[in-house]
Amino acid sequence: MKKIFISGLLSLLPLGLTIFLIQVVFQWVDALGSQIVRQFTDLEIPGLGFLLTLGVVFFAGLFMQVFVGKKILSLMDTLIERIPLINHLYHGIKGVTDSFSQVPDREFSMVVLVKYPTPEFESIGLITNESVLIEGNKKVAVFIPTTPNPTNGFLVLADLEDLTPLDIPVDEALKSVISMGSVWPKKYQAKSNTQSSNGIES
Questions:
Q1: 121 within 8 A of 151, measured Cβ to Cβ
Q2: In this structure, which CATH number among 2.30.30, 2.20.140, 1.10.3470, 1.20.120 belongs to the domain 107-186?
Q3: What angle do CA 102, 107, 112 make, to 5 degrees?
Q4: 0.70 exceeded by the pTM?
Q5: Nearest by Cα to 116 from 157, 76, 148
Q6: Which is more confidently placed, 57 or 124?
Q7: Domain chopping of the chain, boundaries
Q8: Is residue 6's pLDDT more than 50?
Q9: Sheet with 137-145, edge to edge strand ranges
Q10: Tell me: the pLDDT tens digits for 32-88?
């Protein structure tokens, strides 16, 4: 019974935490927008503050796409840099958001296994450029994301024949990296449950 209970708990925990986080974020955003609504009207409509906040964020994104918006944002960065302590906090948070916003702009053409950090081990790599010339020799640029934050990593130049292509999408490869290997594409999962003498399943 204990084993069944733990199994059920582990099965429902991801769903429960996801729903909980969505609820917390919704209530926080809704409360933020509701404060603005109360200044102009006495309406108490659940979700109205949430929609208002989303609208403000959306139009702020549109504004930042034009030259004037970018100029204002640049001036804000300059002003905050002159405020002690706050400038470190602001740029720390901005660095994290910038790193995530830049991920979709990167183009990964293929998921491969690359012998890294030593020839005895292999790491998941993402090909970023297949035509790199180094002293007349053609190399392949491979980005190796680190776990659990795939926005950081290493760039290595390898020979194409030294890479092992993996028939999986880039997003599934990144899920494996983020989960530290606990989530793995089904087509590459071992089905055998036999254990070796050192206790590792083979």
A1: no
A2: 2.30.30
A3: 120
A4: no
A5: 157
A6: 124
A7: 2-103, 107-186
A8: yes
A9: 153-158, 137-145, 122-134, 110-115, 164-166
A10: 667 766 666 666 666 666 777 777 777 777 776 666 666 777 777 777 777 777 777
